[in-house]
Amino acid sequence: MIQSELLRSNDVLRDALATHLVTDAAGARIPLSSNIPLAYAEALFAFIRRERPANVLEVGMAHGISTLAILSALRLAGSGRLTSIDPHQSSYWRSIGTLNVDRAGLADIHEHIEKVSSSALPWLVDRGTTIDFAYIDGWHTFDYALLDFWYIDRMLPVGGVVTFNDCDWHAVHKVIKFVLTHRKYEEISVGLPKDFASTNPLGRIRRRLTGRNAADRYFRKVADWEPRYDYFKNF
After folding, report:
1. For a designed S-S bond to 7, which of 14, 98, 127, 138 qualifies (C-beta 3.0 to 4.6 A apart)?
2. pLDDT tier for residue 206 given thresholds of 50, 70 and 90
3. CATH 3.40.50.150 corresponds to the domain 5-221
4. Are strands 161-164 and 217-221 parallel, antiparallel or unpaired?
């Protein structure tokens, strides 16, 4: 079978996706979980390769599949750094994400912040941080996902891109509707087919009618705009 450029470029990621297992610091093999699928990792990798962002931010790291896809693309591009925010990396995730980055030889272009995003993101804003691309895959309640976007929008210049994972989740879908009604962003295609899959046939119909597409969705910032103090539009 012909392997993709992403899989050829990263043995650690390839092994994790092939075996559905990851390795902790003691050498124990445990099930891979909470990872993005290969198709999303491939799209992420290809987009980063093409756009060549200098500063990338991700919210949520887990076992590091999205992290490795981004870092592999940055390494091949020859420039760029990634900052990952994950408050549970050394506890719940047993540091496997950061270990995988080390094992892949990518630690020199990676920084991990072990804080909740609601603390880490305003800290980055206060530091004057700017980013070119952000991947949001953190806590999936509406308040946290909206805060993630709100602070990222302040670090993202016009032309920058923000991507959402798990877009079929009700809360994330609602945040995307806020993005499109209360800021100036346009959705861009990265070649991922829309995914309205559901175990319930009526669920598939509802997903199509409401636009709850499960595939990662990418949005480019087209204007640095904020509404008036009294602006509101239903979303």
Report:
1. 14
2. confident
3. yes
4. antiparallel
